[in-house]
Amino acid sequence: MDLNAIHYFFDCCLGRWSIERTYHYLRHQLVERSHTDFYVEAITPELRRQVLADNHYPVPEGRDLDQLPGFQLRFQTVSETGEEVSQELRALFVPRQQQGEVLTGDYLRDRAYEEARPIISSFSYNANHRELLMTTPYTQVVSVDSITLINPNLRIRRILNYQRPELDQPLDTLRLVGFGVEQKILEGND
Known about the structure:
mainly beta, Lipocalin, 10-stranded antiparallel β-barrel, 11% helix
C-alpha cells in the first residue's frame, strides 16, 4: 500500500489555518457564517497509541504504527451570532485497502465533533483529486466531511450532515450543509 500521497496531504495540513465557513441549517431555513482559527500539529507516537486504546482498536498487524497518517488539532470558532466553540482532538487514519489512487480505511478520534467521546469512522482519500472524505455515523446524524487540498496553502471544505437513516437505508435527508475556504497562515503573515 502506497501511503506517500496521503502523507503529503497531511504534511500540507500542518500549521495554522484561517477558516471562513457558511452553514445552511435546512430544517430551520437558517444560514450562518463563522470564523475558525485551526491549529494542526503532527501526532506523536504516544498519542497514536492513546487514540487506538481510547477506541479499543487493535494495533494493525504488519504496520509500523508511527507511519500511520494522523494529526492533533485545536480550534476556536466564533459564529456571527457570537457563539464560541473550542475543541482539541487527536485523529489517526488506518488504511485498509487501496484501489488505484483511492485509499480507504478507518478514521479514529479520541473525541468526536458532534459527541464528546472516542469514535471510529471511515475515510477515503483520492490522490488524483487530493480529497479526503470522512464519514461518521453519530447518534442522530451521519456527517460526510470533505477536505480538498487545492495547494499546500488552500483547502476547500464541504460538510453534509444527514439525518441518520434506518439501518441499510440511504442517506437522503440533509439537516446541515457547510462550505468553507481554509487558508494557511504563513510565517510573517499574521
